[in-house]
Amino acid sequence: MSTTDFSQFPPIAFIGGGNMASAIIGGLIRQGVLASRIMVVEPYEPQRAVLLQQFGINALPAADGSLASAQVVVWAVKPQTFKDAAASVAAFTGHALHLSVAAGIRSSSIATWAANEHIVRAMPNTPALVGQGMTALFARQGVTPAQQALAEQIIGTTGQFIWVQQESQLDAVTALSGSGPAYVFYFLEAMQQAGVEMGLPAEQALQLAIGTFTGASQLAAQSSEPPAVLRERVTSKGGTTFAALESMRGSHMGAHFIAAMKAAEKRAVELGDEFGA
Ligand SMILES: NC(=O)C1=CN([C@@H]2O[C@H](COP(=O)(O)OP(=O)(O)OC[C@H]3O[C@@H](n4cnc5c(N)ncnc54)[C@H](O)[C@@H]3O)[C@@H](O)[C@H]2O)C=CC1
Ligand SMILES: O=C(O)[C@@H]1CCC=N1
């Protein structure tokens, strides 16, 4: 297969057709993958209607023999439902590359359920919906270089990616970039609320907050200097930023934030323990 000709992309099946599946399907279709090459198993009828309306894909209500043509199976179900979903799918997909986006569920569990060692785990995030995703990938031993390239092509349609070498690092990734968009939205909400309390219209306060996140992120991405130096450049001695940062330090905001992310990592480990094989 050509690395660029997405119209020749091999048949791909999604198990679960919710948020993350839609983000990846959207990326594939934007790059020219034919909707006719994309299968989706989605038991929830209203969500099947969304997939039809959004992508022109007739999702299956349950797994069937048509999945056997898939060269890649993307697992996009909740960790809690992975095992049950796998029981109805595995009979058809033994030979495929299995690409899981489920938080916590370890490749050893997937290998057991899918009777297959060809497993790549991905931890994407919802900015994938607009082609700005940040994903970490992990390949189980036994995944071929061609399969790794295939996983990169799929995830690459949704934004940037990195590979991690240890599977346990995916739990840290989940806490950082997987859940991370929620932290950003939380900060945006707080910045908007503060703006309103200080007298700005809500719409303008949100526009200012979003523009600030976008601009600061771009500056950090394009600068050769670390965030701490960029922060110091904003902070005039005795000025407004200094006052804000002193308030944040006084309430130990950084320590609270790190503790919150560690709670997310702990939950990822628990999900693997609770819902794994
Ligand atoms: N939403 C996020 O920000 C991220 C989610 N993830 C992971 O992606 C996975 C999916 O999450 P979302 O897309 O957010 O959830 P979602 O709830 O939007 O999608 C899951 C879909 O699976 C369907 N489903 C339930 N049982 C099924 C079965 N037996 N067979 C096939 N489909 C079934 C549901 O009807 C639903 O539409 C989760 O494992 C989550 O950990 C990973 C990174 C980010
Ligand atoms: O909250 C969750 O469990 C999923 C994984 C990362 C983002 N959403």
Please specify the SSE layout and strand pairing.
Layout: E1 12-15, H1 19-30, E2 38-41, H2 45-55, E3 72-75, H3 79-89, E4 97-100, H4 107-114, E5 119-123, E6 133-139, H5 145-156, E7 159-163, H6 169-178, H7 180-197, H8 202-222, H9 227-234, H10 240-250, H11 253-275
Parallel strand pairs: 1-2, 1-3, 3-4, 4-5, 6-7
Antiparallel strand pairs: 5-6
The protein binds 1,4-dihydronicotinamide adenine dinucleotide and (2S)-3,4-dihydro-2H-pyrrole-2-carboxylic acid (A1CAB).
Give an overview of the whole structure:
This protein has 277 residues and is an alpha/beta fold. It has two domains: 165 residues, Rossmann fold; 92 residues, ProC C-terminal domain-like fold (Orthogonal Bundle), CATH 1.10.3730. Helix content is 52%, strand content 12%. The protein is built from eleven helices and seven strands. Strands 2-1-3-4-5-6-7 form a seven-stranded mixed β-sheet, with helices on both faces. Helix 6 crosses helix 11. The longest helix is centred in the C-terminal third of the chain and has 23 residues. The relative contact order is 0.11. Bound molecules: 1,4-dihydronicotinamide adenine dinucleotide (NAI) and (2S)-3,4-dihydro-2H-pyrrole-2-carboxylic acid. 1,4-dihydronicotinamide adenine dinucleotide binds next to helix 1 and helix 3.
The biggest sheet amounts to: 7 strands, mixed
Overall mean pLDDT stands at 95
Number of domains: 2
CATH architecture classification of the largest domain = 3-Layer(aba) Sandwich
What is the C-level CATH assignment of the largest domain? Alpha Beta
Percent range of helical residues:
40-55%
Structural class: alpha/beta
- Oligomerization state: single chain
Over the alpha carbons, how many angstroms does the gyration radius reach? 21 Å
Order of strands side by side in the largest beta sheet? 2-1-3-4-5-6-7
- Span between termini: 34 Å
CATH level 4 superfamily of the largest domain: NAD(P)-binding Rossmann-like Domain
CATH topology of the largest domain: Rossmann fold
What compounds sit in this structure? 1,4-dihydronicotinamide adenine dinucleotide, (2S)-3,4-dihydro-2H-pyrrole-2-carboxylic acid
What's the total helix number?
Answer: 11
Q: Which percent range describes the beta-strand content? A: 5-15%
What shape does the CA trace take? elongated
Number of strands: 7
Order of helices and strands: EHEHEHEHEEHEHHHHHH
Low-confidence stretches: none
Domain Pyrroline-5-carboxylate reductase dimerisation: 167-271
Domain Pyrroline-5-carboxylate reductase catalytic N-terminal: 12-102
Transmembrane segments: 12-29
Pathway: Amino-acid biosynthesis; L-proline biosynthesis; L-proline from L-glutamate 5-semialdehyde: step 1/1
